[in-house]
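Worked example 3. Consider a protein that binds cobalt (II) ion.
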Amino acid sequence: MSSFAPESGGQRATSSDKYAKYDKQDAEFFPDIGKIAFRSNAGPTETLVFKHYNPTEVVMGRSMEEWLRFSVCFWHTFRGTGADPFGFPTLIRPWDDGTNSMENAKRRLRAAFEFFSKLGIKYWTFHDRDIAPERETLEETNKDLDEITDLALELQKATGVKLLWATSNLFANPRYMNGAASNPDAHIFAYAGAQVKKCLEVAKKLGAENFVFWGGREGYHTLLNTDILAEQNHLASFFKMAAAYKKKIGFTGTLLIEPKPKEPAKHQYDYDAMTVIAFLKHYGLEKEYKLNIEPNHTTLAGHGYEHDIVMASVFGMLGSIDSNTGSPDLGWDTDQFPMDIKNATLVMKTVIEQGGIQPGGLNFDCKVRRESTDLKDMYIAHIGAMDTFARGLKNASKLIQDGLLKNLVKERYSSYTAGIGKKIEDGTATLEDLEQYILEKGNPHAVSGQQEHCESILNFYI
Ligand code: XUL
Ligand code: CO
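Given these inputs, the predicted complex is written out as structure tokens:
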């Protein structure tokens, strides 16, 4: 997420008539759009239909819905305004009067649940401050959060939509400008802790299956004023407190850390998957936390699209995915809807290989472009991305079942299954053994890595 606008659209006046119709219990927010259907023979311009995502279709023993576990994020889709550093909001939603009122917050929530239901998406995600306004004191803020989450609970029950994860916004309020848990001021650390305490309680109340920490301001802008070690020690203490409180209140969701190398901080401590895994192991937290990987963050860290998903997965640390994409030709966090079938295939290959992403999911941490101003663009964006991942799932299942790449990799490492290779693998070989082996066998021969052959195999399945 890069544009976060807790209070936006200030130039629009609250006209009671205009918005009051949306306060009614039976108000419809998207009257022109019905439940999105699956029709495999739909034509190319029919972008309000699923052509590939058929929730009940079984792929490798599980339904598409179970493999993909799609989720809508509240912040971009119901709080995004299209404002950017150069221009005012462009995404004017007819129910949103731009104020900080509870009525407005409730309208947004009702609109969101209608949206989830029409799309057939079974999960949602939010930051505490997306769904309820921040007030002058923590007590007042928590009171409003309680009232809004009562409504959220009601809407969850009525629609069957569940909470994939909740998170605390520890980056937008000016108090967090120097960080939250890594802030040089213990008073701010305490505020962040109090906020997370409440958000964990809310997550439990709404039955969240996970809880995310993304530290946009946990990092530095200059090393000249920063005690790097103290800040990381404090961050670790914060994560320990959260894990302890989770257990104390009996919240059973998985705790997840979401890596990102930069933006808004110049350097974020949770740079990429391997940095976070090393941090967790260093502080003995690797049993308490897993990772939420967002590919747009991975590419910002200078890696390939699926790199962090694969790295987290092989170490048993992939908990969930913020399914989006950037524009590598731009180089910042554009949070676009994932529409690239090859990327989706590679992600789903890892998800299938690790036996699924549950209790995580594929959360669309994505925003429509500020030029995509129609209400139907919200649907088209999600439908396009869901179809992309349905195709990725089908492609990956064929690729895995045919086993060509798997066999190729197996063959490539086969020298480790016997003799000296087996001893290396078992950890029993010594440097003397290796010398003896070379003296006996002589020089090794070049073996092709066959990259282009592998790429051609992959293309066959796309
Ligand atoms: C920021 C980002 C966040 C996290 C949750 O780039 O991705 O929206 O997903 O705070
Ligand atoms: Co994200």
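Take a moment to read the result before moving on. Residues 1-14 have pLDDT under 50 and may be disordered. The pocket of D-xylulose (ligand 1) is lined by residues 1, 127, 167, 212, 214, 216, 258, 260, 294, 322, 333, 365 (CB under 6 Å).
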